[in-house]
Write a structure and sequence with these properties.
Blueprint (H helix, E strand, L loop, with lengths): L5 E10 L7 E3 L16 E3 L2 E11 L5 E7 L2 E4 L7 H18 L3 H6 L16 H12 L5 H6 L30 H5 L3 H10 L4
Antiparallel strand pairs: 1-4, 2-3, 4-5, 5-6
Helix pairs in contact: 3-6
Length: 200
């Protein structure tokens, strides 16, 4: 699945001298899950006449969304095909995923669903986030899978049990967490991922 990052841009139409005018966003970055409402705020030290809002996906040109000018709001004409296609595509993925994957109900219960947004925890260091995702879907370089793939002959964990991906969450020699912890992720899930990140 392709991860897409979107840039929202605010352009302000001003009057008077621009020498002392400053536009400062209250947050440089805002992250949200698909379907969430997002509020973008900025401070401006001048006389504002209009605000233009654009969005831009990586590798694509900016798309005009809204002009707010002297109290009148003008939307793009024709409207930008924001999320009708995106939501429909994600719903198709969910339907196919549920039909083809016997474990889909279990994954959805843990908060793992098809989405066009980055999985939670994406603000963590990449190695930790990658490990979180491998633990979430139970696919990684644990000893049991490495043995299945004929990369090694021993599938025994340091604790003596067979080292499956699910075992990594409950190994007595390592920090433990639950599958539900991984979805958020909770501090215990992050600690567990950091422990295993150089192994799986």
């Amino acid at each position: 699945m392709e991860d897409r990052q979107m840039l929202l841009m605010i352009l302000i139409t001003v009057s008077g001298s621009r020498a002392t005018e400053v536009i400062t966003p209250k947050s440089e970055r805002v992250f949200a899950l698909e379907g969430d409402n997002v509020t973008l705020s900025c401070n401006y030290s001048g006389s504002v006449r209009g605000v233009h809002l654009y969005r831009q996906y990586a590798g694509s040109p900016p798309q005009f969304l809204i002009l707010e000018y002297s109290g009148v709001t003008t939307e793009a004409d024709p409207p930008v095909p924001r999320t009708t296609k995106e939501i429909a595509r994600t719903n198709i993925w969910k339907d196919d995923w549920n039909q083809l994957t016997s474990r889909a109900p279990d994954w959805m219960e843990r908060g793992i669903t098809p989405t066009e947004c980055l999985a939670s925890g994406h603000d963590l260091p990449w190695l930790t986030w990658k490990t979180l995702n491998r633990l979430r879907v139970e696919q990684g370089r644990c000893k049991a899978l490495m043995k299945t793939w004929n990369h090694q002959t021993d599938d025994t964990c340091s604790c003596g049990a067979v080292q499956t991906m699910s075992h990594l969450l409950e190994c007595e020699n390592a920090p433990q967490c639950s599958p539900q912890d991984l979805a958020e992720p909770t501090p215990s899930a992050v600690t567990c991922a950091r422990y295993w990140q150089n192994d799986i």
